[in-house]
Amino acid sequence: MIKKIILFITATFGLLSADIAQSCPAFVKASNFPEWIYKTPAKNLRMYAVTPTNSWKAIPLQIDPMTDKNLYDSDRPAAAGNDTVRPTDRFVFETDEFGQALKHSTQFPCDASKLTEIRSSSQTFGYLADCSGSSADVSTVIPGPISLNTGDRTIASPRFDYIYHPKNQLLYESLVAKFPGGKSVRSAYDADIGLRLDIKNFFTLHFHNGDIESYINSSKVGEVGVVQGIAFYLRLFAFKIDLKMNTVASFFENSANIPMLVDVPRNAYEHLNPASGSLYSFKLDKASFEMDDPMSTMPRFEAELIKKGSPVVKEGGLRRCKGEHCNFKMMGKVENEPFALSMNLPKNVVEMGFFPTFVSDTKEFKSGLGWKGADKSMPNEVGIFFPTSGLAKGQYKIDSWILLGDESLKSSACPADAIIGPTLTPASGPAFAH
Fold it and tell me: From CA 283, how far away is CA 277, in angstroms rounded?
């Protein structure tokens, strides 16, 4: 029963910064493209943009092999070579690289017989090309901005270094922000996860970083970023239990994304008392949060409110919903440069009282809810708490992003919007009215 009632939520919320135009790339499932892509070897699929001089430039395109559950498919380490794309695969590209619209007189790139036009929310355009007929080799990979060094456990981009924990590889030991001119500062460190299950008519279970382990079981460095498959385990007494909860962590030049799938095999409200939940915490170094920023929509933690249970708790979360979608954001700064933590949840989950609340003092949090370890909390330790006692049986997806830089704080869409047009041939002309 204990294994079945475990509710585990975690994310690599971090504190990074950069001066950029668009923080998050576009994710497009292969099934959204015209069917011709399934007949083309992945190595012959390339992305292009039209420059101001009406010439073509190749732009980065990453095709991630994914399962029907949106998990990284480690059995196909790369959707490349002579392999063809599957409908579940994920196309990743930066809409910042897009250019002007294709003109009727422009010759197709790479001797392509067909293109698919893609439009961004800012009315710029990219073109997916079938380069099978090219006389030149188009399979050369464009070097990506992210590197992965498994020896020192570091994911590095021009804007940050993410050094992950040896036994809990979704958490970080250190998070370093990089700035123009070579300056770098440690923004946060010692990320931790705590889980409290106050089981009705039973006893209370406490778990922390030493009990919960996560390991990278597959990874890929692509043209746009690094994608990693991660599996979770729980150490309970002398046993190591596979929680059967996997996720995909994606790191890009100026952002990171970790979608989380919460699998609740039983109605939590029948088994858990209020104040049960998950706390993700970390220590601040050169970073700070701006709780009074008008763009900070993540509610602050209130112990007495949490103790009253989901019927009362949910009201604070529902105020952050528009339609069937809810966004929770916390603004902050590293060396006066802005960043944001953003989480997207469906409204039906928030209605159960499940959403993030910002904890500005973990010692006060633990004392207020009766969690263990209040005496070990540091003054600079903050966190994100998810109350879980109101969840019903089912599976729930939470989309989490780290957003970096001035422009990223103005954008509400992550991943970036991309509208897929029909197939073009040299005779058909552009797909949209330009």
Answer: 20
